[in-house]
Automatic annotation (TrEMBL):
Coiled coil residues, start to end: none
Chief location bin: membrane
Keyword flag Cytoplasm: no
Name of the protein: A-type ATP synthase subunit C
Pfam families to which the protein is assigned, alphabetical: vATP-synt_AC39
Any one GO BP annotation for this protein: proton motive force-driven plasma membrane ATP synthesis
The gene coding this protein: atpC
TM region positions: none
Assembly notes: Has multiple subunits with at least A(3), B(3), C, D, E, F, H, I and proteolipid K(x).
């Protein structure tokens, strides 16, 4: 059944847009990231401590230090920011934004599953949490305490994620790989998001176009990875998330390409090729898919930025801000982690979305 948004739930667009515009003005510009690249890790930490992340740094400083303190503070700040934005939205906006922010439930569940599968400590798993979706921090902590992945899945009984995870539990028990569980989480998330029936305004259509492009980008990441591995096309199709701008027959054509090079040639016929051309050349030179991952993320962010200005009194500026806030946190984390392992500034910069 589709979720319905009625006329009486339209939302407080003018108020929410004004508040988001103010918050967006505080996001770091490109020049700040270039400045951070010139700093060493202690200097970066001091810079962040003196910024609007100060509250979270001070709050967590008694328990954590160094890069761990920075990670926790960034995630806590982003979760609070997302929840605050959601709180001042009403009606349609609140429903839409709440549905979109469920991506953090998917993120957090994947973090728990991965942590359990690879033997990470409870603190290491908790460090990755961004409790900005429906699942509260207390629920996530309870899930960390579960003894096994099947126990974690059972702990999600009563949520929209239980059925897609439990349906793949037998395969996990047989293979001990997480790919099917994670893929089913993505499918459940996008199926719910795309099920919301909107009023049909131009802004609504752009919102859903953004979501469908995100589905395409998720699928392209999967295709690049699995085609390089040489997986059979029918198995690849099992991992494709429905609902993107690229239709099922287009996805099947990409999956059926007999070689990676022929797959790339077919990608040239998609609207995403201009964003990928340079990254594919980088892949040919290095053998690493990292540049392609970054290029796809940049394409996603670029479209969010573009549509956020189209209809000022709509969900779009709010959506654009939440996406940009995530970019800021990810960029800071990328710089700090890169400095920690002594990557060159050039390598780090190539991973930034600026």
């Amino acid at each position: 059944m589709k979720s319905m948004i009625g006329r009486r739930a339209m939302g407080n667009y003018a108020y929410a847009s004004a508040r988001v515009k103010t918050r967006k003005s505080f996001l770091y510009p490109k020049e700040t990231y270039l400045k951070l690249l010139q700093m060493d890790l202690p200097e970066i930490s001091r810079f962040i401590e003196e910024s609007r992340y100060k509250k979270e740094i001070d709050e967590l400083a008694n328990k954590y230090s160094g890069i761990d303190l920075l990670e926790y503070a960034l995630n806590l700040n982003m979760a609070r920011e997302m929840n605050e934005v959601l709180d001042f939205c009403q009606g349609e906006m609140k429903i839409l934004l709440g549905a979109y922010l469920m991506k953090w439930d998917v993120w957090n569940i994947k973090s728990i599953l991965r942590g359990k599968n690879y033997g990470a400590s409870e603190d290491e798993i908790k460090e990755t949490f961004v409790p900005a979706g429906e699942l509260r921090m207390s629920t996530l902590v309870d899930l960390i305490h579960k003894g096994s992945i099947p126990d974690v899945i059972e702990g999600l009984n009563g949520t929209r994620f239980y059925k897609p995870l439990s349906s793949s539990l037998e395969e996990f028990n047989r293979t001990h790989t997480l790919s099917r569980l994670e893929n089913n989480l993505d499918k459940a998330y996008y199926a719910y998001l795309l099920s919301i029936k909107l009023a049909g305004t131009s802004a609504d259509e752009l919102m859903m176009t953004f979501v469908r492009r995100e589905v395409d980008i998720t699928n392209l990441r999967t295709l690049f990875r699995l085609k390089r591995q040489g997986l059979e096309h029918e198995k690849i199709m099992d991992y494709i998330v429905p609902g993107g701008k690229l239709k099922a027959d287009e996805m099947r054509k990409l999956a059926q390409a007999p070689s990676f090079d022929e797959f790339v040639n077919l990608v040239k016929d998609t609207p995403y090729w201009p964003d990928l051309a340079e990254a594919v050349e980088n892949y040919r030179a290095t053998g690493s898919l990292n540049a392609i991952e970054v290029a796809l993320t940049r394409a996603d962010i670029s479209y969010a930025d573009k549509i956020s200005h189209a209809y000022p009194l709509s969900i779009l500026p709010i959506l654009g801000y939440t996406v940009r806030k995530q970019v800021e946190v990810n960029n800071i984390r990328t710089i700090a982690r890169g400095k920690e392992v002594n990557l060159s500034n050039e390598v780090i910069r190539n991973q930034l979305v600026i």
